[in-house]
Every structure is written in C-alpha cells, then in structure tokens.
Write a structure and sequence with these properties.
Helices cover 38% and strands 18% of the residues. By secondary structure, the chain is α+β, with helices and mostly antiparallel strands. The structure holds zinc ion (ZN).
C-alpha cells in the first residue's frame, strides 16, 4: 500500500481476494466484501459490536499507512468507534482478547459502566 493516489481499485482488490468470497452471495457476500475493503483501505482487521457495552469496536493494524500508530504502545490497536477510545497492544492475541471488552480500555465506556 502506498499513497491514496496509487490505491488499488475496489473491484481489483475483490478479484485478488476472490477465494475469500467463494460460495457467498447476497448479504453474506456484501458483509465479507466490505470487511475485505475496510482492511485494505483503513487497516481494519476486525470490527464488531461489543456485547458488553453495545458499542462498535475495531481492531486496527498499526503498520497500515492509514492508522496512527504509537510506536511505544505496540502494533495492534483496539478502537471504540462510538467514543474514539483507543489502546495499543504488542501482541495480536492480546488485542483480540481486549476487543470484545471496551469497558476495560475505553474511558467513556468505563464511565458509562460506573
Ligand atoms: Zn467506548
């Protein structure tokens, strides 16, 4: 990935990832395709609604050019999309563990819980 001017066209990205879309159609295809494009363009590895708080959370790859990375905090970022709370993790497995529990790392989710 380079500057946005060199950005690969969405249909080309999806052709390259066709094996991930094989056998899908309708809404399932749309969901998978949009996840692939978010990862390609925004560095979003995973995004979902956290059951504990009801907020949208995302796991970001700090090596992606669109992601502001804190070099001291680690490569992987968990982001509460509703409040902008963000925490960095060195290990992907840690980031995945924390992702579903924004009340442990997003200050606003923490306050709402108390
Ligand atoms: Zn939050």
């Amino acid at each position: 990935m380079g500057l946005s001017a060199e950005r690969e066209a969405p249909d080309s990205v999806l052709r390259r990832n066709a094996w991930k879309l094989r056998g899908l159609s309708g809404a399932a295809f749309e969901r998978r395709a949009s996840a692939i494009l978010r990862r390609e363009y925004e560095g979003v590895v995973e995004s979902r609604r956290a059951r504990s708080t009801g907020t949208l959370v995302a796991l970001l790859d700090g090596e992606h050019p669109e992601v502001d990375n804190d070099p001291h905090g680690g490569r992987w970022a968990t982001l509460c999309e509703d409040h902008g709370g963000v925490v960095y993790h060195r290990a992907l497995t840690d980031a995945k563990d924390f992702l579903s529990h924004p009340e442990e790392w997003c200050p606003t989710c923490q306050e709402n819980r108390e």
